Each structure stands twice: as structure tokens, then as C-alpha cells.
Amino acid sequence: MKRVLQIVLALAIVGLIYWLYNSLMTPIRFQKEVAVREAAVISRIKDIRSAQQAYKQKYQRYTPSFDTLIHFILNDTLVYDRTSGSADDSVAVARGLVSTEQFKRAVMDTIFSNRLSRQDVLDLPLIPYGDGARFIMDAGNFETDSKVVVPVFEAKAPYKAFLSDLDRQELINLIDDAKTLERYPGIKVGAMDQATNDAGNWE
């Protein structure tokens, strides 16, 4: 009987040690995985921002449609000026030696410098680690306090979309902390209700 009690006690101690270890390691493992996934989401949402800024450069507005944005990246061009001579040289200007010509470059080559493949662009709406979930995107106009109307857009990925397969309680805590700090519970760039200069909430 004594031998049995010793074995049971030993197993109980081992179980307690494992429980304590797991309790300590769960938030650490969670935070490490969150960092990895957030980095992937931020990288993609930065590409969305770059594409939106290029779209606005050409059309003076943002688009709420990923289909439109993808078509723009893959098929459209941007117009640039090339100046020959120095416009600061008044003599050269007077002699007509300074000229400016326009040229076009493919959007894909311009904003991404061939860094992304065609498939990368097609996958732009998809949230990394999101199991098919898509970024929430919108665009429109916002009137500032000084009555100036400016184009705005936002794109966001809620934590639930790319962290739902991780520890449930840790995810709840993360979302609650964000709400307590009045931050969006996820990764977000831009805003529809204020002019943010396309800033991200991780910056």
C-alpha cells in the first residue's frame, strides 16, 4: 500500500509540474506565434497600402474594391515626368534647353519593383493564417474640421481572423486589452472616420 501511495504521489507531482510549466509557457508560446503572424499580416497590409496610394496618385481617390485594386496593379500604368536639363538654371531655361516629357511605367514594376508575383497580387485580399478570410477594406471621403474633403481608406484584419486556432483564453485577453486601450483588436491601416495619412496601428 505504501508503495502504491508513493507512485500515486510521484505521478501527482509530475502532473502538477507539467501543469505549472504549461501554464507558464502558454502565454509565451502564444505571444511568439502572434508576433510571427502579425508580421505576415502587416507585410501584406503594407502592400495593400502601397497599391491604394498608387491608385490615388492616378485617380485622386481610393477604391473600396479588391477586384479594382488587383486589376489596377496587374494592368494599369502610372505617368511620370522626365526632365532634361536643370529647371534651376535660368539661362538654360531661357534658351529652351530644359524640357520635360512624360513616360508611363507599369504599376506592377513601379510600386513593387517585381517583388511580388502575379499570384501574390491575386492573394492580396487574403489574410495570412486566415484560412481564406479576407481583409475588410473600404474607401470614401472624409470632411475635416476645417471643411476640407479628403479621400480616405482603411483595410483591417481582426485578431479572430488569423489567431482563432491559438489558445482561446489568450486570444480573449488580447482582444480585451486592445479594447481597453481603445485600439482596433487586430491589424489596421487607415481609417474612414479621420484623416490618418494612411498610418497603420502598429506604427
Task: Give an overview of the whole structure.
It contains seven helices and five strands. It is elongated. The relative contact order is 0.14. By secondary structure, it is α+β, with helices and mostly antiparallel strands. Helix content is 50%, strand content 19%. The model has no long low-confidence stretch (mean pLDDT 87). Strand 3 (136-143) and strand 4 (149-158) form a beta hairpin. The chain has a three-stranded antiparallel beta sheet. The protein has helices at residues 2-59, 66-75, 90-94, 107-111, 118-122, 159-163, 168-180; strands spanning 77-84, 99-106, 136-143, 149-158, 186-190.
List keywords for this structure.
203 residues, alpha+beta, three-stranded antiparallel β-sheet, 7 helices, 5 strands
